[in-house]
Write a structure and sequence with these properties.
alpha+beta; YefM-like fold; three-stranded mixed sheet
């Protein structure tokens, strides 16, 4: 864990953010007192599987039919 003064944090924000996103943790201090922590954002891994929501989605049998002419004209078709 690394501690930096707020002035250093302002002038070197991009490298500090890169360091934090790589797993580091930076404490930002003002007048020697810690006031904030810059840490990586941990995102939850989402397990994506094909067909997982199949039971929630219903499509009508005519889903692929051509649009009615008045609607198709509205889209410039």
């Amino acid at each position: 864990m690394k501690t930096v003064d707020i002035h250093v944090a302002k002038t070197h924000l991009s490298p500090l953010v890169e360091e934090a996103s790589a797993g580091g943790e930076i404490i930002i201090a003002k007048a020697g007192r810690p006031v904030a922590r810059l840490a990586p954002l941990h995102r939850e891994k989402y397990d994506r599987k094909r067909g997982r929501l199949k039971h929630l989605i219903k499509m009508k049998a005519n889903f692929d039919d051509p649009l009615p002419s008045e609607i198709a004209e509205a889209f410039g078709s």
